[in-house]
Amino acid sequence: GQLFKVAVLPGDGIGPEVMAEALKVLDAIEKRYDVKFERTHANVGGAGIDLEGRALPETTVNICKAADAILFGSVGGPKWETLPPDEQPERGALLPLRKIFGLYANLRPAIIFPSLTSASSLKEEVIAGGFDILVIRELTGGIYFSQPKGIDGAGRDRVGVDTMRYSVPEIERIAHVAFQAARKRGKKVCSIDKANVLSTSVLWREIVINIAKDYPDVELSHMYVDNAAMQLVKWPKQFDVILCENMFGDILSDEAAMLTGSLGMLPSASLAEGTFGMYEPSGGSAPDIAGQGIANPIAQILSAGMMLRYSFGMVEAADAIDNSVAKVLDQGYRTRDIYQEKAGEKLVNTKEIGDAIIANL
Amino acid sequence: GQLFKVAVLPGDGIGPEVMAEALKVLDAIEKRYDVKFERTHANVGGAGIDLEGRALPETTVNICKAADAILFGSVGGPKWETLPPDEQPERGALLPLRKIFGLYANLRPAIIFPSLTSASSLKEEVIAGGFDILVIRELTGGIYFSQPKGIDGAGRDRVGVDTMRYSVPEIERIAHVAFQAARKRGKKVCSIDKANVLSTSVLWREIVINIAKDYPDVELSHMYVDNAAMQLVKWPKQFDVILCENMFGDILSDEAAMLTGSLGMLPSASLAEGTFGMYEPSGGSAPDIAGQGIANPIAQILSAGMMLRYSFGMVEAADAIDNSVAKVLDQGYRTRDIYQEKAGEKLVNTKEIGDAIIANL
Ligand SMILES: CC(C)[C@H](C(=O)O)[C@@H](O)C(=O)O
Ligand SMILES: CC(C)[C@H](C(=O)O)[C@@H](O)C(=O)O
């Protein structure tokens, strides 16, 4: 049997509770497939700050380095909000992890399950039958990481500067990720830029058009980021794969996720070249409901599924997890965040929905 | 009586048709108030390219320089889409106009009229009673205009670069605009930034907090841009004035505008220091319906109203225009874009709704 090493970083808030359910699912996968997941737990975010003095302790980095993939919970909470931005749980953990491990490709599905369309703030007629968008966001370049960046001068003479920079190879590799993903889905890529204003976008568009020639079976379109923010609201079903640079992807993936109405359902993957990746729910640490056993673990469980698919090549097991989640929703199981008091719905807690997903595997 | 000089730039697509109605409204204002609007027409956008070789001809700039305000229609269309970005109607006209005239403060109202809530793609329960957001966008700084900007190198070694830069005075003056606007409305400013990633945002937040001390009657909050993109969809009514740097304002103002469901209703103002300003509809040139006399002129008429309010200090006349538009909507007048085949609605064309607005002044 195969052995995979998983760095388990539960983090803060609801992180540990939902992580527990994802780990139960990994146990169940071990029983059904000839595979072992060797798990090493490590502190991150607020837990890292409290226990080891920083959001991303060195021990944690080393545990991740020794692993085949990182399963990440969620970080942040009011307790650490007054720290300087660099040291805060989210920024202080996520940005260094992305850079250290070269996690350049962020995959953020925004899916409405047909049984959950009514959770969206969009009208029934706009989303009837659900939608299924995959945002592919460049994650290690652009205005997040380029130099110069900083505040120069003193007093009222201060000037803040950030730099957005993209090289051809950076654009090429993320474009390949988008076209390859589109091939396995709706065969459409919409590339987002602001080529009427940004030089990086002019280069981005040219290179994406070039790479598209390798994928004649995939349809490529281009949209300005401001128009994309509108079109998502107007008619989300027009999109299949959305390809973005780092900052635009941050904004549009969150907008698309909120349009589904159920953030607690959305996983994400951040992939390096090769098979290494980090997997985490799209939602936050929800400190307001932490410790009550009522959080929705589905995003964390689907994140574990993405790990099997992208880092471990276990497509069958990953499909089994996805299908099981869909079945459990069809059976009416609902945590509080997606409960709508409709006939046929069963209000359950974190553990119960985890158990139901395992029972349906 | 007073005399105001208006540079009239109708532009392309539906621009000339909707401009005609706005000019009729100015005629009507002249009859009711002791004022004269001396109007000089000039070419801009595709019309500028076709007739004078460029999107913003020098004659047009000179006419604008001699004026007290610019009333702008809309520009762009398929005919000019293959030109290099710099020369295209939108980019080639709007960015130089903003820079030449120092139009640093962009005011973009996103309003749902209670009688039009059903045009929004948001659910009735999310927008019941309408909403009224004013996005204040910094318009002459940030990543739009800062240097270095360009593509360096050759072939696969090329690198694209854009720079986002903000100085303290640039942030201060736009913050004042936001707080002063909030004072006359809901007394809340939500300042948007990405202070967990961008140095410009760290400075932005600090300065906005400083300026807020001059406005103790206005409540200030801060939101990351990705979260703002979500919160707009989730619960737009939480916002009163949204204050943004240039790029974030471009994205969020369009998202907010689309949430109203009736782009043809939304005016905008771009203000310089002093009283000079440029006024234009938020929607595009809609080449698909141009020349048919069915376009909605309300955004253009409300833009003329903003001109009276902000550049000419004619608050009473501006209120009269706003009220007249609201009345005409209450009376059921609808151009095709906002017609919903409901009882009490009267489908009318561009001229008819213009006449109705004048009749109700
Ligand atoms: C916490 C923050 C630095 C991060 C980002 O902007 O990338 C977050 O918003 C995300 O999208 O993962
Ligand atoms: C045409 C373009 C340069 C412009 C901008 O990005 O500012 C437009 O989108 C706008 O918002 O007025």
From TrEMBL, chains A, B:
Listed InterPro entries: IsoCit/isopropylmalate_DH_CS (IPR019818), IsoPropMal-DH-like_dom (IPR024084), Isopropylmalate_DH (IPR004429)
Subcellular location(s) of the protein: Cytoplasm
Main location: cytoplasm
Entry keywords, A to Z: Amino-acid biosynthesis, Branched-chain amino acid biosynthesis, Cytoplasm, Leucine biosynthesis, Magnesium, Manganese, Metal-binding, NAD, Oxidoreductase
Cofactor dependence: Mg(2+); Mn(2+)
Cofactor note: Binds 1 Mg(2+) or Mn(2+) ion per subunit.
Catalytic activity: (2R,3S)-3-isopropylmalate + NAD(+) = 4-methyl-2-oxopentanoate + CO2 + NADH
Keyword Thylakoid: no
Binding site for Mg(2+): 226, 250, 254
Domain of life: Bacteria
Site (described: Important for catalysis): 144, 194
Pfam families: Iso_dh
EC number from the UniProt entry: 1.1.1.85
Pathway where this protein functions: Amino-acid biosynthesis; L-leucine biosynthesis; L-leucine from 3-methyl-2-oxobutanoate: step 3/4
Ranges where the Isopropylmalate dehydrogenase-like domain occurs: 5-357
Residues the record lists as binding NAD(+): 77-90, 284-296
Manganese as UniProt keyword: yes
GO molecular-function terms, A-Z: 3-isopropylmalate dehydrogenase activity
Residues that bind substrate: 98, 108, 137, 226
Quaternary state and interactors: Homodimer.
Family classification: Belongs to the isocitrate and isopropylmalate dehydrogenases family. LeuB type 1 subfamily.
NCBIfam families from the UniProt entry: leuB
Function: Catalyzes the oxidation of 3-carboxy-2-hydroxy-4-methylpentanoate (3-isopropylmalate) to 3-carboxy-4-methyl-2-oxopentanoate. The product decarboxylates to 4-methyl-2 oxopentanoate.
Protein name: 3-isopropylmalate dehydrogenase
